[in-house]
């Protein structure tokens, strides 16, 4: 064992961190708030357990959420003098076990090769779907299959399990089952396994082979799991099997940063840890070593608005007050964003220490264009817009348009080709997250083409292609030292001196597809993650009007999450600057609610249908969906499809019944 000084490992810790590091045996849950030094605690606790003889270094397993985090943890442990400690993801550790035991259980055959991605197989299967479903992004199909596999749901059992979970698939359940079955068959024919199979097969191995389970448990007996709030049921079961009847398990996480439930993750394993391990020690790390008191005041208010009692305690010096700014329209907001970045850089904040966070990738290109025009360097931390598959396909279709078509007619013809060849439907919010981003990306291509044509009525195909090529080159040339552009999800675990959060509007954050209480809670947590990425400067904004698909300008409302953030109770230090002053209320729904005959008829139908299907009423249709149907009064399937929240599954199951009601109550 390397020589480690236990006292030195405790020397620079705060009291709560020291308690966590000293808790080296038995079940331990560390609730680590944003910026509370959890990586330091995990590495120090591991080193302290080894230094005090609790466990040999070779019997330790530190489980991380990503390969990047595992690499960073290995480096941190090496710097403490522990080069031999294993830090891996669930998948990486399962892979090592399967490779060892697979040949003995399969007549000497080696473990099948691992699929790098589900997408090639699923892309082919998607193209075989009927009607407009063939345009379903394969990533949405992959996400749904991964959700099912995380719960060990077989293809034929998917339908009732999805209904029971209130899950709406990106395509009707019968089609999803067909794709799921065909995917499994294609994988078997190719003698491949995917990343989900690594876990399911390892779980099956350890559940059915006592000798293998005993061998595995003899090699690792002391476990530490990071980002435990993002653990899914399959990972949790695997952890139980690794642990056996022992209890040297430490889990670290923050339920307020649970932002991956759409993949099957659940924070219930973290919040219910003490119930599963009676007598477990729980330690809360609430001192924040990242953000100014003013920023933490805002973050704490956001949690308090959701009846959360948790409070991050500041340790950093006071800084500028965060701002919540209302703009007249989207163009004014972009101009304000550029001005804010210039002001920060002038005040000696490096561009690389500034981040602009958005809800979805399709919000990034207008920001890129504004920064390019202002000659401000930037880098895109998610996939670049012009590298997205649907954008490349749109440009391919543009190249095939007649060279003689010019101006607005060119933009109209391009939109027609996107509709015919790529299944684009303006304003279509159906399908999964990737389908919605795909629609938003294609809408932006059309908007950019229309904007260029409006500026130059003689614009032809080649000139428009050159315009797009120039935008793509500017995007690709983003400096490594430039402003960071990325989504809230990708920002998890990162931090900057200054963070700007634009477009905090209803329908964007929370995203319009978030309807249930659980979905809205996750959207609130996304904003919380965004707020707590900032060290010194924080700016939030929204616009009263914004141009959407088809050059239509729509009125916008501030995000409901902004409500109350600008209030300053007398006992709370710090303040929030609202420029110019604007009410933060999200406003009321426009429908005539339950007095309207149509609304009453829809509610009665939902009640009968829910009882008949044996599901909660919100699974059939949440209130927000009924309100939108009552507002729009659709009488055709295409019109009903355009109602937000009316996804393919609901449309196929309930569309005809709903149209009968809306037609009868015109």
Sheet/helix structural class: alpha/beta
What is the makeup of the main sheet?
Answer: 8 strands, mixed
From the spread of the alpha carbons, the general shape counts as globular
Unreliable stretches covering 5 or more consecutive residues: 568-574, 580-595
Radius of gyration based on Cα positions:
27 Å
Helix content estimate: 40-55%
Count of DSSP strands: 18
Proportion of residues in β-strands: 5-15%
The N- and C-terminal alpha carbons lie at a distance of 80 Å
Number of helices: 28
The average pLDDT score comes to 86
Descriptive tags:
18 strands; 666 residues; 28 helices; six-stranded parallel sheet; alpha/beta
Task: Tell me what you see in this structure.
This protein has 666 residues and is of the alpha/beta class. It is built from 28 helices and 18 strands. Strands 11, 12, 13, 14, 15, 16, 17 and 18 form an 8-stranded mixed sheet that branches. Helix 5 packs across helix 10, helix 6 crosses helix 7 and helix 19 packs antiparallel against helix 20. The protein is globular, with a radius of gyration of 27 Å. About 3% of the residues have low confidence.
Briefly characterize the structure:
With 666 residues, the chain is of the alpha/beta class. The chain contains 28 helices and 18 strands.
């Amino acid at each position: 064992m390397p020589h480690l000084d236990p006292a030195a490992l405790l020397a620079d810790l705060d009291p709560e961190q020291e308690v966590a590091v000293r808790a080296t045996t038995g079940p331990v849950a560390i609730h680590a708030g944003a910026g509370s030094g959890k990586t330091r605690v995990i590495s120090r606790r591991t080193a302290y357990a080894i230094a005090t003889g609790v466990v040999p270094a070779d019997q330790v397993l530190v489980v991380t959420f990503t390969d990047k985090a595992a690499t960073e943890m290995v480096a941190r442990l090496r710097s403490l003098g522990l080069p031999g400690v294993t830090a891996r993801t669930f998948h990486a550790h399962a892979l090592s076990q399967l490779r060892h035991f697979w040949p003995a259980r399969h007549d000497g055959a080696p473990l099948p090769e691992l699929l790098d991605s589900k997408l090639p197989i699923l892309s082919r299967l998607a193209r075989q779907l009927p009607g407009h479903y063939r345009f379903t992004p394969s990533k949405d199909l992959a996400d749904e299959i991964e959700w099912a596999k995380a719960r060990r749901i077989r293809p034929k059992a998917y339908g009732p399990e999805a209904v029971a979970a209130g899950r709406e698939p990106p395509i009707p359940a019968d089609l999803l089952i067909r794709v799921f079955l065909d995917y499994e068959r294609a994988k078997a024919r190719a003698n491949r396994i995917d990343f989900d199979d690594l876990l399911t097969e390892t779980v099956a191995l350890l559940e059915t082979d006592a000798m293998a389970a005993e061998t595995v448990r003899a090699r690792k007996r002391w476990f530490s799991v990071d980002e435990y709030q993002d653990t899914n049921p399959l990972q949790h079961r695997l952890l139980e099997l690794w642990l056996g009847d022992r209890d040297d398990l430490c889990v670290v996480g923050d339920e307020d940063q649970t932002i991956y439930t759409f993949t099957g993750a659940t924070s219930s394993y973290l919040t219910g840890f003490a119930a599963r391990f009676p007598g477990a020690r729980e330690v809360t790390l609430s001192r924040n070593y990242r953000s100014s008191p003013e920023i933490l005041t805002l973050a704490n208010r956001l949690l308090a608005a959701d009846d959360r009692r948790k409070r991050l305690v500041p340790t950093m010096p006071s800084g500028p007050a965060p701002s919540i700014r209302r703009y007249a329209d989207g163009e004014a907001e972009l101009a304000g964003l550029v001005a804010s970045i210039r002001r920060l850089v002038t005040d000696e904040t490096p561009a690389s220490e500034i981040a602009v966070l958005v809800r979805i990738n399709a919000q990034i290109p207008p920001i890129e264009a504004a920064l390019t025009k202002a000659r401000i360097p930037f880098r895109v931390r998610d996939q670049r817009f012009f590298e997205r598959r649907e954008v490349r396909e749109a440009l391919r279709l543009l190249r095939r348009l007649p060279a003689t078509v010019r101006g607005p007619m060119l933009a109209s013809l391009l939109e027609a080709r996107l509709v015919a060849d790529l299944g684009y439907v303006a304003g279509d919010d159906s399908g999964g997250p990737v389908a919605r981003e795909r629609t938003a990306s294609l809408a932006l291509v059309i908007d950019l083409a229309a904007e260029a044509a409006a500026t130059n009525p003689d614009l032809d195909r080649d000139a428009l292609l050159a315009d797009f090529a120039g935008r793509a080159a500017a995007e690709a040339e983003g400096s490594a030292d430039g402003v960071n552009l990325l989504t809230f999800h990708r920002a998890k675990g990162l931090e900057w001196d200054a963070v700007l959060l634009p477009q905090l509007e209803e329908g964007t954050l929370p995203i319009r597809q978030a309807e249930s209480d659980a979905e809205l809670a996750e959207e609130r947590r996304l904003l919380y993650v965004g707020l707590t990425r900032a060290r010194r400067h924080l700016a939030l904004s929204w616009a009263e009007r914004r141009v959407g698909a088809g050059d239509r300008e729509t009125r916008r409302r501030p995000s409901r999450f902004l409500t109350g953030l600008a209030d300053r109770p007398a006992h709370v230090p710090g303040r929030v600057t609202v420029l110019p002053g604007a009410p933060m209320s999200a406003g009321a729904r426009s429908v005539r609610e339950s007095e309207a005959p149509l609304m009453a008829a829809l509610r009665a139908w939902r009640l009968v249908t829910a009882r008949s299907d044996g599901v909660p009423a919100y699974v059939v249709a949440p209130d927000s969906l009924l309100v939108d149907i009552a507002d729009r009064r659709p009488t055709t399937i295409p019109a009903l499809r355009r109602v937000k929240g009316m996804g393919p599954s609901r449309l196929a199951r309930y569309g005809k019944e709903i149209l009968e009601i809306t037609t009868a109550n015109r």
